[in-house]
Amino acid sequence: GLLVPSPSASSPSSSVILTQDELKKIAAYKAVEYVESGMVLGLGTGSTAKHAVARIGELLKQGKLKNIIGIPTSKMTHEQALSVGIPLSDLDSHPVIDLAIDGADEVDPYLNLVKGRGGSLLREKMIEGTCKKFIVIVDESKLVKYLGGSGLAMPVEIVPFCWKFTASRLQKLFQDSGCVAKLRTFGENDEPFVTDNGNYIVDLYFKTSIGDLKAASDSILQLPGVAEHGMFLDMATTVIVAGELGVTVKHK
Ligand code: 5RP
Prior knowledge:
Layout: E1 4-5, H1 20-32, E2 40-43, H2 49-61, E3 69-72, H3 75-83, E4 97-102, E5 106-107, E6 113-114, H4 121-128, E7 131-139, E8 154-158, H5 163-173, E9 180-183, E10 185-186, E11 191-192, E12 200-205, H6 213-221, E13 226-229, E14 231-232, E15 238-243, E16 246-251
Parallel strand pairs: 2-3, 2-4, 4-7, 7-15
Antiparallel strand pairs: 1-16, 5-6, 6-14, 8-12, 8-13, 9-12, 10-11, 15-16
The protein binds ribulose-5-phosphate.
The site of ribulose-5-phosphate (5RP) has 18 residues, from helix 4.
């Protein structure tokens, strides 16, 4: 699809400089315009998705939305959704999801994504991989020419058992792209970051493009010990981008 300027009243005027968080909020509010009463909704994770969850809660309170069921993609979103009054369920009880809304770390020109810098990629992929419509909300800083092109991490969720072995196999898979695999840690003592599923995250950094994304995806998933990776290929149906010049809506 083409990039089309949104007619939305929320488009920023060119005389105002907006913060990145304000841009995230504009994209999120635009996405919530697609939500209808009675929908089962996949609720994303992160600083952009957070604005969408808050907005859905607000519309429920105002009675402008009714009978929404949220399927949260992380414990953090679960907490937030409860706090703003969104009734929640899970994939076991609600395997059919009408619409999911979530942020992304990178979006390529074909609407392929990198996700998971927030660490919720496995639940996000399970939920967003099954929904009828998946709207991705980003500020324009997330647009890249190719995945891995921001120089930032491509996350892979792995089981903790012998993680060094798995990390080194991941790094070897992409040695032609100058890949470096690093365990994600936090705090002063470099404790391993643990996901909602009790797993670790290995972040892959590439010097050059990894080429065929589908082949890369397949080879990562073939490694025993890997739970999931952060490439979301051919999953987004719509991407809403908020930039200084306004909101653009890109459809698959
Ligand atoms: C979490 C994600 C997030 O959607 C992604 O990291 C974007 O986050 P933010 O909206 O805070 O920039 O994939 O696993």
